[in-house]
């Protein structure tokens, strides 16, 4: 099968591409490398110039060459699969439909469908990065920014994509629930996040050696409030200062993917995010390396993936008080970390090994 993976978030399509290639498929990744992460791609879709000139150059490069043609399956990472305005995206999308086989949307980020669910009275999520359990907005400015997906040209464009794709794959429970409101099960498939266990070897240092816990917080510089890492930093800094040397905190921002993985490997516990119900790429990478994670690990997530026995995630409550209590418990009882670390890689191998995710894709694409 000849496959085009168009766009990328946090190495998602680059990792999936490698697994599909090992299964014998011809795969091309066209992306901007997840911006500063500089992830692998065959075709660079970076918008190299600001303003209209940059948009016109990128559009011409993709629209009038044959680089994005002749594939059996095209999977786009989002309705906004390259950095162009909706009218340009519409033209590119029509070209993709005309010169390729099936076109699939991969739901692995905030878009109109997700925000429609968040704003709905019957939203099935107990909380999210935009609303707390009480219904209060976490940050009005962030909420208003995300709400732009529902408005104007980009909102109309999202609806066009939903009405025109052959099917949708989903990376997280949250995005799957959003897409269930639009698509029936025959056109919808949860595939999860691919993690390449061939590439990620277990860490070579003991967890919490001599009872000292090394905490790690890696994040997007411009999404601190959205992910709750601003609160995580404040609380973890205070708790570490009061730990009498039993805990330390390392914070990194906007590193390339290769640098980030190397820096993260020095930690015992990776602090992921506060408002997620489920672990995303950051947490799964850490578990694959045999580290502990503080992330989303709600019961509804384990039920969704039908996991009854392996529960390695330290589930963080979506409040500063809850996170502080969890963190103090971890630091005061470091012996519990070893058990969680020992089952983390097995958990990833069972549910998110890139070969498993790639096979889910192939099975779904062929079903269409």
What does this structure look like?
It is a single chain. With 368 residues, the protein is an alpha/beta fold. The chain has helices at residues 12-22, 51-63, 86-99, 112-119, 140-147, 152-164, 173-180, 224-227, 229-241, 257-264, 281-288, 299-304, 320-332, 335-351, 354-367, and strands spanning 2-6, 26-31, 43-44, 73-76, 102-107, 167-170, 188-190, 213-219, 247-253, 269-271, 292-295, 314-315. The relative contact order is 0.12. The model has no long low-confidence stretch (mean pLDDT 94).
Tell me briefly what this model is:
This protein is of the alpha/beta class. The chain has helices spanning 12-22, 51-63, 86-99, 112-119, 140-147, 152-164, 173-180, 224-227, 229-241, 257-264, 281-288, 299-304, 320-332, 335-351, 354-367, and strands at residues 2-6, 26-31, 43-44, 73-76, 102-107, 167-170, 188-190, 213-219, 247-253, 269-271, 292-295, 314-315. Helices cover 43% and strands 14% of the residues.
Helix- and strand-based class? alpha/beta
Sketch the topology as an H/E string, one letter per element: EHEEHEHEHHHEHEEHHEHEHEHEHHH
Number of strands: 12
Rg result: 21 Å
- Mean pLDDT across the residues is 94
Residue share in helix: 40-55%
Q: What share of residues are in beta strands?
A: 5-15%
- Largest sheet: spatial strand order: 3-2-1-4-5-6-7
Oligomer: single chain
Could you tell me how far the N terminus lies from the C terminus, measured between alpha carbons in angstroms?
A: 14 Å
Which regions contain 5 or more consecutive residues with pLDDT less than 50?
none
Categorize the overall geometry.
Answer: globular
Q: Work out the helix count.
A: 15
Q: Largest sheet, if any?
A: 7 strands, parallel
